[in-house]
Amino acid sequence: MDTEDTMAFLKEREAKLGAPMKFRTYCTWFAKLGGERRDYGVFLYTDGRTMVYEDFERDPMILGIPINRKRKEKYVKMEESFPVDSITDVQRVTRRSAERSLEAKRDISRAPGIFGKAFCKLVTKISTADSGVIFVELMDHRAFVDMIRKFQKEA
Length: 155
What we know:
Layout: H1 4-17, E1 23-32, E2 37-38, E3 42-46, E4 50-54, E5 61-62, E6 65-66, E7 79-83, E8 87-94, H2 95-104, H3 114-119, E9 122-128, E10 133-138, H4 141-154
Antiparallel strand pairs: 1-2, 1-3, 1-10, 3-4, 4-7, 5-6, 8-9, 9-10
C-alpha cells in the first residue's frame, strides 16, 4: 500500500521523467560492470521509453538498529538512465559469477546449471547496446522480462 509520502515521491519522479511511470521495482542488490555497486538496494523504474535507476542514502543497520561507524564514508548519489530499446539481452546468472565479473572488470557471468537454479543465488543481467552490463537482484525477474518485451514491441 502506497502512503502519502510514497505517492508524492512517485509523482516527483514522474515529473522528472516527463511521463507516467509504467513499471517500478526495488532491486535488493545492484552492480554495474566497471561502475557502481550497491548492496542495500536501488529503485528501478520506467515510462516505457527510459529506464532509470537510483539509490538513496541509507545508514547501516542490524535488526533495524542503526550502527554508528567511526569512519563514515561520504554518500554519493547514484542516478542514471538509458533507453529501454537499447536493452539487447536480459537473462538470469549466478550472483557469484556476477561478482567475479565485477572483480575481473569484464563480463564472465554465466547462466546457472540445473543445480545452480536450485542452490545458487540468482541475479538478472541486463545487457545494453553500448556494451554496458548491469546486474540486479529483482523481486520478480519474470515480470521484469515481460515488461521489457512489451515496451520493446511498442517502440
